[in-house]
């Protein structure tokens, strides 16, 4: 009887560990097979041009739906992928599928649409990153200016290596944006030295626009900063109408967030792509 109880308990424990508790060892073995099992997909979130109301660009956000774990958020599995080196294969998968999506939208009539992809610091440190991007753009006949590379401040170390990769990306012709701007520890010095096109105002500032004078001041300042440096600026995490008004008043060019649309599968975004 004790044995029986023990087994039941073990079964409970195992299920608990494997389903709700992030058991990274088990999760890793599943993530390792995610590509071949076709468990990965990409959702796209529209970026709204605040003056025209049109959508000229989307951010690609990866999704993982696993038989055992269900939907795992990228906030959970991207760090795991980075630790285990799986990020390289996953990153390349994202790049290729974004190029395929661009080809699809372009062939069906929208030649100007742009997609932004997130690049983790680990990928950014890779020597062959720029070549890989060039190869996929060539393979699917995508002009470089249809692709945007989002890098966080954490990846932008003040080194010759960072400068050299960014310069090569710029020569290739892709757009370069700084994701979660204002939350990292970088000095403003890099804005002067690196060829950056776009600043993405982190959602932690945008969220408090209506309630915190400090956050609204920071948001306005980032918008001014971007414009003074000849960069574009986009606000992330916009959820309320009040935030949209504030951002328009402050001359912010673009915004993305649940107020406009959640990230969605391409089939649900046709009305934006072919407006
Ligand atoms: P991120 O690049 O800063 O992406 C923005 C995150 O905010 C996304 O979460 C998006 O779904 C969410 N979001 C968008 N609008 C709103 C809003 O109005 N309110 C709130 N509360 N959230 C909003 P998601 O998709 O869970 O991605 C989380 C992070 O995972 C991303 O942050 C990015 O750092 C990373 N990530 C996602 N896809 C990829 C990928 O393909 N490669 C890499 N390396 N990282 C990725
Ligand atoms: Mg991003
Ligand atoms: Mg962000
Ligand atoms: Mg982020």
From TrEMBL:
Regions annotated as coiled coil: none
Q: Which residues form the EAL domain?
A: 24-275
UniProt-recorded name of the protein: EAL domain-containing protein
First and last residues shown, out of full length:
417 to 691 of 691
